[in-house]
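Long-time lurker, first post. I've been practising inverse folding by hand and with some scripts of my own, and I keep getting stuck on stretches where the structure tokens seem ambiguous. Below is the full token string for one chain I'm working on. Before anyone asks, I'm not after the true native sequence, just a reasonable design that respects the backbone. If someone could post their per-position residues I'd love to compare against what I wrote down in my notebook.
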């Protein structure tokens, strides 16, 4: 929601949060978490169908971000449910009841992350929140403003990271199970996993719309946009534009080419490398294990447009 120079200042304070060396260090931990979650899924599948979302795809992002920010594991499920409710505020036409849920979640998240920042003030450690505090202290003489900036940053990271990554993890499993020949092809060619993830991101972008406010009267694709008007950029539709993609409705993991799932320009996603790593670790493990996995029922989506969300993905073993 920010523009330069305010946005530039905040973005610079964060820097490159996931440089390749830190991600290489975190990879082992993500692999272990993915392995543990798949162990649990396998145990459940021994008794019959299980929900991939509840057991795996909703879990991996919150555990990954929770460990990175050093949040207590006991809080993970609360954070997941608050972020589910909070993002309604970014919907195109939110219902009053959805806005009420979002307001309540925002209030609780505000309390949670305000307390977290205060706690890291008292007990700084080797974690991103403590390091953002020391960066802001060096540039912001007023401590309260520094705390406020770090609060927003931490809250925003969690909101940006959970629903989006969960959707790509669930979406990739759904799409590959629905296209079993491509899944079999990928199983013997794991070097194509990154390309397959890009096709999942194109075919069903976790964020379908990006909002912008026009800074001045302008013309966009033949449409006049007045200063201060909001424009919704329909990423999901752009990804199915036949002028950009050959046969766009076909899911094809061998397709190559750019997509807009991580945005573009000055707001380009800061967590892209982490999200991709989670998807790669999970898909690599899944291809080696659970060869007989299949869909056992219809997936259920939340009725939202902006932030896509698969609520349940029933799977079973053949
Ligand atoms: C598949 C997963 C993800 C998707 C699809 C995604 C998508 C996006 C998109 C489309 C934007 C641009 C929004 C805009 O232009 O208004 C964005 C920005 C951002 N993302 Fe992600 N994201 C993902 C995961 C993550 C993760 C894991 C993190 C952090 C750990 C993260 C942190 C951010 C931040 C901080 C921004 C704001 C950057 C700015 O405004 O300068 N994202 N993301």
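-- Answer (accepted) --
I ran through it position by position. Result:
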């Amino acid at each position: 929601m920010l523009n330069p120079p305010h946005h530039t200042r905040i973005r610079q304070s964060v820097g490159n949060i996931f440089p390749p060396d830190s991600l290489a260090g975190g990879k082992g931990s993500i692999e272990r978490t993915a392995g543990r979650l798949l162990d649990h899924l396998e145990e459940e599948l021994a008794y019959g169908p299980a929900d991939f979302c509840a057991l795996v795809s909703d879990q991996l992002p919150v555990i990954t971000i929770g460990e990175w920010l050093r949040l207590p594991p006991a809080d993970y499920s609360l954070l997941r449910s608050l972020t589910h409710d909070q993002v309604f505020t970014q919907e195109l036409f939110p219902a009053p009841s959805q806005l009420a849920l979002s307001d309540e979640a925002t209030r609780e998240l505000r309390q949670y992350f305000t307390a977290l920042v205060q706690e890291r003030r008292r007990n700084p450690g080797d974690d991103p929140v403590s390091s953002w505090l020391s960066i802001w202290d060096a540039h912001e003489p007023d401590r309260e403003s520094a705390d406020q900036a770090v609060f927003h940053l931490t809250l925003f990271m969690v909101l940006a990271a959970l629903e989006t990554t969960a959707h790509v993890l669930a979406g990739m499993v759904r799409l590959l199970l629905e296209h079993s020949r491509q899944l079999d092809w990928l199983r013997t060619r794991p070097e194509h996993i990154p390309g397959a993830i890009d096709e999942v991101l194109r075919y069903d972008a976790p964020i379908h719309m990006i909002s912008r406010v026009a800074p001045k009267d302008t013309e966009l694709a033949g449409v006049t946009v007045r200063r201060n008007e909001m424009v919704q950029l329909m990423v999901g539709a752009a990804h199915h534009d036949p002028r950009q993609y050959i046969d766009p409705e076909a899911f094809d993991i061998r397709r190559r080419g750019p997509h807009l799932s991580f945005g573009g320009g000055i707001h380009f996603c800061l967590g892209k490398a982490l999200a991709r790593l989670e998807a790669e670790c999970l898909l690599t493990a899944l291809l080696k294990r659970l060869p007989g996995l299949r869909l056992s029922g219809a997936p259920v989506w939340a009725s939202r447009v902006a932030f896509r969300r698969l609520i349940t993905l029933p799977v079973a073993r053949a």
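A couple of notes from the structure itself: The two ends are 47 Å apart (CA to CA). The mean pLDDT is 95. Happy to go over any region you disagree with.
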